[in-house]
Specification:
The complex is a heterodimer of chains A (198) and B (185). Chain A is of the alpha+beta class and 198 residues long. Chain A is built from six helices and eight strands. Chain B has a six-stranded mixed beta sheet with strand order 2-3-1-4-5-6, sandwiched between helices. Classes of the chains: A alpha+beta (198), B alpha/beta (185). The structure holds coenzyme A (COA).
Chain lengths: 198, 185
C-alpha cells in the first residue's frame, strides 16, 4: 500500500526537525540498529523480540503484504522512533487495528510518540479501520498516559499475561479507541434518505 | 446569461445528493456563481433511485428545474437508462464505467466519459467515497468550476475526521478526469 502525504517533517519541542515516513525495505538495517539501541528495560515490555534479525525479516515482509503499516522517524540517517499499525487482512477482526510505538529515550517527552501514533490513527481510519487497540504492560506508564491523551480507554486487564525477560509475570492492559463514528457520519450523509420519499 | 444544467443520478446510498450539494456549494459559495439544487428521491424514479438537479449560472436563476441537462453524472445503470435520453444534444455524460455499460442510443453529439469510481473508492479504502470520486471526475473533465472551489466544497461538506480520505478521493477523480478529457480533445 502506498501512503500519501509523506515524508513529513515534525519539529520536536526544542525545534529539532525529524523526518517521518513509511518504512522501506532498505531501512531494515537502520531499524534493527534502532531497536538494538533501546535500553533493556524498554525491550522487556515489547511484545516481540525486536532485536532478532528473523523477526525483522518477517516484519518487513508483513509491511510488503499490507498487513502492517510502519512509520519511522529519522534524524540524519538514524532511525529515532518507529510506530506500527497491525491490521488483519482476513477473519473476523479486519476492522480492528493495533498500534505500537517506540521512541529513542533521548527524544522522549518531545511529542514524537504522540505525533507518530496520531498519524497512524489517521492512516487507519483512511483504510477502513473502525476500532483501534493497544496492548500495554501495566507498568508502561508513559505509554498508557500518552494513549489516554489520544482518546484510548482501558477495556480489559489480562492478569499475569506477560512474562518479562526476567520471568516476572505482569498484567496486560488492553485499551481501545472507537473510530467508527467518523464513518457512521459519512454513511448517514450519503444515505440519500428523505423523510418525504416513499 | 450563461447557464449549465446538471443532473446527478444513482441509487440511494451512493451519495448522489451530496454530490449535487458539493457542486452547488462550490459554484455559489466558493466560485462566486449562482446555483440551485433540487433533490428527488424514490417516487420520481424507480426503486431506490434518486437524483439531484443542479443549475449553475452567472446570474440569478429563475427556473431551477432541469429537463435536458448539459451534463449528466450517473452512478447506476437504472439512472443511466432513465436520464441519458434526456441529455441535451452536444451534452456531456459522466458515468461509472464498471457499473454502467453505455450503448449507442445517446442524443446527438453527446460526449461520454467513464471512470471506475467504485474501484478507485475501494482502493482508497472506502467504497463510500465513490460519490466524491465522481465529483472530482466532474471537476476534472468539465473544468466548469475551479479545482480550489470544489475542493473547498468537499472539505466543508463531509464529516469531521473523513476529510482526508474524501480529499484523496476527490483528487483521484479529478486527475483521472483531466487525463480523460485531455485524451479526447
Ligand atoms: C511510550 C512512548 C512511545 C512515548 O513516546 P514520547 O515521544 O515520549 O511521547 P510524547 O512526548 O508524545 O508524550 C505524550 C504524553 O504522554 C505522557 N507521557 C509520555 N511518557 C511519559 C512518562 N515517561 N511518564 C509520564 N507521562 C508520560 C505525557 O503526558 C506526555 O505529555 P507531556 O510530555 O506534555 O506531559 C515512549 O516512552 C517509548 O518508546 N516507551 C517505550 C516503549 C513503549 O512503552 N511503547 C508502547 C507500546 S504500545
Amino acid at each position: 500500500m502506498k501512503l500519501e502525504g509523506f515524508p513529513q517533517t515534525v519539529s520536536l519541542r526544542d525545534g529539532t526537525p525529524v523526518t517521518v515516513r513509511p518504512l522501506a525495505a532498505a531501512d531494515a538495517k537502520a531499524l534493527l540498529e534502532f531497536y538494538r539501541s533501546l535500553p533493556e528495560e524498554d525491550r522487556l515490555y515489547l511484545k516481540d523480540d525486536v532485536t532478532d534479525a528473523g523477526w525483522l525479516h518477517r516484519f518487513v515482509a508483513l509491511v510488503g503484504s499490507g498487513e502492517v503499516v510502519s512509520l519511522i522517524a529519522e534524524r540524519g540517517d538514524k532511525v529515532v522512533a518507529e510506530a506500527t499499525l497491525y491490521r488483519a487482512l482476513r477473519g473476523w477482526s479486519t476492522h480492528v487495528g493495533e498500534i505500537r510505538v517506540s521512541v529513542a529515550p533521548a527524544l522522549r517527552r518531545d511529542g514524537l510518540g504522540t505525533s507518530l501514533a496520531g498519524e497512524l490513527v489517521k492512516v487507519a481510519t483512511r483504510i477502513g479501520v473502525e476500532k483501534m487497540v493497544i496492548e500495554v504492560v501495566e507498568n508502561q506508564v508513559g505509554a498508557r498516559k500518552m494513549f489516554r491523551k489520544l482518546g484510548f480507554r482501558q477495556e480489559a486487564v489480562l492478569h499475569g499475561h506477560v512474562k518479562d525477560i526476567n520471568g516476572t509475570k505482569r498484567n496486560l492492559i488492553l485499551a481501545s479507541s472507537d473510530v467508527s463514528h467518523v464513518w457512521d457520519a459519512m454513511e448517514a450523509l450519503v444515505a440519500d434518505f428523505s423523510p418525504s420519499a416513499e | 446569461m450563461h447557464k449549465t444544467e446538471i443532473r446527478v443520478g444513482g441509487l440511494g446510498g451512493q451519495g448522489v445528493i451530496l454530490c449535487g450539494i458539493i457542486i452547488g456549494k462550490a459554484a455559489s459559495i466558493f466560485d462566486g456563481k449562482h446555483a440551485t439544487l433540487i433533490q428527488a428521491f424514490g417516487p420520481e424514479a424507480r426503486g431506490s433511485a434518486c437524483s439531484a438537479q443542479v443549475t449553475v449560472a452567472d446570474e440569478a436563476i429563475g427556473y431551477p428545474y432541469v429537463k435536458n441537462p448539459d451534463i449528466l453524472i450517473v452512478m447506476s445503470p437504472d439512472a443511466y437508462t432513465q436520464f441519458a435520453p434526456q441529455l441535451a444534444p452536444g451534452g456531456m455524460l459522466l458515468y461509472e464505467n464498471e457499473l454502467i455499460k453505455v450503448d449507442g442510443t445517446l442524443p446527438k453529439g453527446v460526449r461520454a466519459f467513464g471512470v471506475p469510481a467504485t474501484r478507485f473508492a475501494e482502493e482508497l479504502g472506502r467504497r463510500l467515497v465513490l460519490n466524491i470520486v465522481m465529483t472530482g471526475f466532474f471537476a476534472g473533465v468539465t473544468g466548469l468550476l475551479s479545482y480550489e472551489s470544489v475542493e473547498q466544497a468537499v472539505k466543508t461538506s463531509v464529516p469531521k475526521g473523513t476529510e482526508d480520505l474524501n480529499l484523496r478521493a476527490f483528487r483521484k477523480g479529478y486527475e483521472y478526469g483531466r487525463e480523460q478529457s485531455a485524451g479526447k480533445s
